[in-house]
Write a structure and sequence with these properties.
Two copies of one chain form a homodimer.
Chain A (H helix, E strand, L loop, with lengths): L1 E3 L9 E3 L6 E8 L2 E11 L9 E4 L23 H6 L44 H6 L5 H10 L3 H6 L21 H9 L3 E2 L14 E2 L5 E6 L8 H13 L4 E4 L6 H10 L5 E3 L1 H8 L9 H14 L3 E4 L21 H13 L4 H4 L1 H11 L2 E4 L14 H19 L4 E5 L8 H11 L5 E4 L11 H15 L3 E3 L12 H22 L5 H12 L3 H7 L3 H11 L20 H14 L1 H21 L9
Parallel strand pairs in A: 8-9, 8-15, 9-10, 10-11, 11-12, 12-13, 13-14, 14-15
Antiparallel strand pairs in A: 1-2, 3-4, 4-5, 6-7
């Protein structure tokens, strides 16, 4: 289903709406705060003995049954009353300048989203960030919201004594059996978690990023100078969150980016991240040497006022580190990193991002824009993994993390890149140590360089592992990585692959509720409840389509086999028949069955080998 | 390109032939044994300063430039002279019986492959298996062949002192810098490696499976009762090995399987594995209770005479273990395991595979069919991982491994299944311990159950990890797993995904030559040699197609950007420009650059922070 919005050309025309097949959107009301409604996706199962499964749902109102979506109007203002109550005053916004849209000629100008919003900015000394509230012992509405959101199914679990047995290896994380708002506050106050939530992004449905919460994933969208338009980008956002992206980074470059960003922000229920240096570079005509503090500062304010929730800031790319990349196989592969390296060498000066970091903190704090400290020197190949340049930068990011905290800001840290499996854990351990347990946000890492076209997989392997080791958010990689701009299918493939990695990590960490969905799906599989199996999967459409390729008939949805093995060789059917026969044979046979189970355990204890070992 | 063979319907009509784009087949002659020619795939690079890259190539003569393929005639008899020289006599083959082809009516009978071959069988006491030769201190031609094959690029590497620095974590494996035939012999003699090579599969290009060699992958093919034909299956074999499958299991069931198998074996350069219990079950009309030793024994001989290189034997599914599966979420999910469990309970008797294991060894030894001891009780869900049933069976497989060795047989062990990440390593460690370091051959494992349609990825994560930990061969999983029979695209996706997992494991283990291809590709990427980048990738066709989706012109193949970032934001272009500028500025600037590198290291040593830590 799609919703159409009548607008001039270049502006979003339609977006994908309606529930994922087999699911419905539900909003849970919090008892103490009925004004706070937390969204979930609920999957009803055909076996009525099975409780419906609630899953985490970042997709916003778009997946309601009859969503009232009007892109011109923007999404409902979930946070407006909360922020208003904090007494943060509206301010006169910075006027839009021609360079904000890349000096686009009038006839090619994309009009901005017409939704009107007040622009707020905290005064100096006025408490505004989630970090500041947390340090002051104050629980915000955002903290209540994410506590409830993270608790997903855990009420049910706590009732089931057997299932609460923690089973996992969390490498020193401290995942509680139940998340309270106070726990969230503590984690934010310790800097171990962030709630990216610009006060000017009131449409946001808050979420938390931290090692002791569910592993999150980010999807990148953004036009490039070569292809794609505004309409594509808003639909990419809606499409990415439909399949599970928890945050979205808008990496647009080129013309109209200010106005395209207004459409994205007003219509995004998830945090939006950007890399402000990209737009700053556009403003100076694309020459890194022409960048300066003034244009960068102006860009930060421009984007902060629009409501961007986190900024990638490559302040760790310092002048003395640049020569460390000289002998690398792939040099500098971060766009922001290479821009700053060029600037440093052109002027032979220390990076203005590093030198002005204090002022950057002041700006970001005033809107509660979170830092995503960029890894501009991340390795771009297996050969360059864990080298001196990468780790020098990481140490500086640790230094900056602590400084940003002292200024009241929320911080996460970006990480690699390309890393072979045996070098992944040292990245995580070093990050936790250097950066005082601030959340890690990694790109992959890719575990080999030899599979362009399949880098969602080369990196999905590394992402699952580093997520297990403690990374809080995984930045997706699509099949088009290194080759071109991802299209709609690539975005979906990237998101699903990273949902797999994140969920595999949650399971391995021993997240208390993670296995409920696996178990529900496995029971459905064993019971041949095909529809339930499809609906419980990360991508019901693909699971159903694959099944129907060879067995399209409706009757096959109840069949006790699939085309993989056929009816005679279906192990699950044989096992089921076995169990059914035993059940049908009455109490005597059942007693025998129970007796056999006891005997089996005896047998195992006693040995009982027929074959002797080789002398 | 395809080659057509004129034959009646139901028989292979055509197969895919010709080199992979950008590659050519080369045969390396061994100095001491010019009669032994070892195949490689060579990728020439457009930068003539770069040596061509040789990669391991299991694809057989099909990928020669002008292959002389005639499916009726079968492949060249690589091993005929070697085996003839060992004095193993030809024997009168067992006559083909109606049940071998599932009592198919004459009008639906697929004719057998007309290629004539002598059928050999070793006499009692006559040395025949690679294990027996190895224990006797004899180096076979197969050992020489695989030593050379595994050495891939290592000659070049040994000349390059820098690259020989071992960099990896092998968890106790003993990977030498250079593989000699004597090393292969030792590994086979210790039972740590196998060379699956039935004496009746003379078309085989030998390969080795062991923890101290390159990680291998297996692809499953096979018709099921529901769909697919003989022609499909032979083309699936050729297609799977084209993309890198090292062995292929024919899991066919239903009618015509004897004759279809003859087409597969006569035209396969890779080891073929089967699960004989499938055909035995067909012969008794599909009722597990009707199975007996006689029909099973007859099937073993039938398939051993045809040349099958390894048999999955589920002899570890013992009667007392079956009740241990009663409380599982997904019961028994191995087809062979469920068949044997049903048999054991129906007769309330110990498995005839276990009780007759001695006789099974005698049959398999006589043809050098390797054991693949099946894990009939492997977990089919995250919930069932590492449970009592699974580990009880694994202990029995250890017992049987040692017995099979004492009978002169080669052995590998099959492993799970569905296992969350934190439970993978214990599987590997236990297998090595219980089974005396016999090679492990695992299916995935899948690290979560919630992504049907993407189980190549859920399992690729587990496969890369368990490969790193020590698994010698990874059985692929396709996107259709749990949903239906894989088609041509699914087979390719499964193979490429598992090549990624195997290669990521080789890199992490510190395989001395594994990184050469990654580095060559990364250099090509950094130099914008797009064609080289495509050709070095596991799937040049897909990499090229993805690139061309947005930048189709030939001129873009030399472009210093792609559509992902566009020309202004390409970090690699910026870094290259930076390096070029430095180079062009003459000796003074270069000195400055070198001086800066030295200073950077000083700077790092001294600290040099601007920002103080939070008090």
């Amino acid at each position: 289903m799609t919703v159409h919005t009548e607008k001039p050309s270049g502006v979003p025309q339609s977006v994908t709406v309606g529930p994922i097949q087999g699911s419905r959107k539900v909003y849970a009301q919090i008892k103490e705060r009925p004004d706070i409604r937390v969204p979930f996706r609920e999957i009803a199962l055909s076996d009525h003995a099975e409780a419906p499964i609630r899953v985490y749902d970042p997709s916003g109102p778009y997946t309601e049954s009859l969503p009232a979506i009007d892109l011109n109007h923007g999404l409902p203002l979930v946070r407006e009353a909360w922020i208003a109550a904090r007494g943060i005053a509206a301010t006169e916004p910075r006027p839009v300048k021609p360079e904000d849209n890349g000096y686009v000629p009038v006839d090619r100008l994309v009009s901005p989203c017409p939704a009107e919003r007040a622009v707020r900015r905290a005064a100096a000394g006025q408490r505004v960030t989630q970090y500041e509230f947390a340090r002051a012992g104050i629980i915000t509405e955002e903290m209540i919201y994410v506590a409830h959101r993270e608790n997903l199914c855990r009420e049910a679990m706590l009732e089931n004594a057997e299932a609460t047995i923690a089973d996992g290896e969390s490498f020193g994380a401290a995942i509680p059996p139940f998340i309270t708002p106070e726990f969230v506050r503590q984690e934010v106050a310790l800097g171990r978690a962030i709630i990216p939530a610009n006060i000017n992004h009131t449409e946001l449905e808050p979420m938390v990023i931290g090692r002791n919460f569910l592993v999150k994933i980010n999807a990148n969208i953004g036009n490039s100078a070569v292809v794609s338009t505004a309409a594509d980008e808003v639909e990419k956002l809606v499409w990415a969150i439909r399949w599970g992206a928890d945050t979205v980074m808008d990496l647009s470059t080129g013309r109209n980016i200010h106005n395209i960003r207004s459409w994205i922000l007003r219509n995004s229920p998830v945090p939006i991240g950007t890399v402000p240096i990209y737009q700053a570079l556009e403003k100076v005509g694309g020459d890194p040497a022409k960048l300066d503090w003034e244009v960068f500062k102006d860009t930060l304010i421009e984007q902060a006022e629009q409501g961007v929730d986190y900024f990638t800031i490559h302040a760790g790319v310092r002048l003395p580190y640049v020569p460390l990349t000289a002998k690398r196989v792939t040099g500098i592969v971060s766009r922001g990193g290479s821009i700053m390296a060029r600037w440093c060498l052109a002027h032979h000066k220390e990076s203005f991002l590093y030198e002005r970091f204090d002022e950057i903190c002041d700006i970001m704090r005033a809107y509660d824009v979170s830092f995503s400290l960029g890894d501009g020197l991340r390795p771009g190949s297996i050969a360059d993994a864990n080298d001196a340049a990468q780790f020098a930068e990481l140490e500086t990011l640790g230094e900056l993390t602590k400084y940003a905290w002292s200024k009241g800001c929320q911080v996460m840290i970006e990480g690699p890149g390309h890393v072979p499996m045996h070098k992944i854990k040292v990245n995580m351990d070093k990050q936790l140590r250097e950066c005082g347990e601030a959340p890690f946000y990694t790109l992959g890492p890719l575990t080999t360089d030899i599979a362009p076209g399949y880098d969602h997989i080369t990196s999905g392997i590394g992402a699952a592992m580093i997520g297990w080791f403690g990374t809080a958010m995984l930045c997706y990689v699509t099949p088009k990585e290194h080759l071109g701009l991802p299209n709609r299918d690539d975005v979906k493939t990237g998101v699903i692959t990273y949902k797999i990695a994140a969920h595999a990590a949650d399971l391995a960490k021993g997240h208390p509720a993670a296995r409920m969905r696996d178990d529900a799906l496995s029971r459905a599989r064993f019971d041949f409840r095909w529809e339930d199996q499809f609906n419980l999967s990360l991508d019901p459409d693909t699971a159903r389509a694959f099944h129907d390729e060879t067995l399209p008939k409706e009757a096959h949805k109840a069949a006790h086999f699939c085309s993989m093995c056929g009816p005679k060789f279906c192990s699950m059917k044989i096992t089921q028949d076995l169990r059914a026969e035993m059940a049908a044979m009455g109490p005597e046979a059942q007693e025998q069955w129970a007796g056999m189970q006891a005997k089996s355990r005896e047998f195992l204890a006693s040995g009982g080998k027929l074959y002797v070992e080789e002398p």
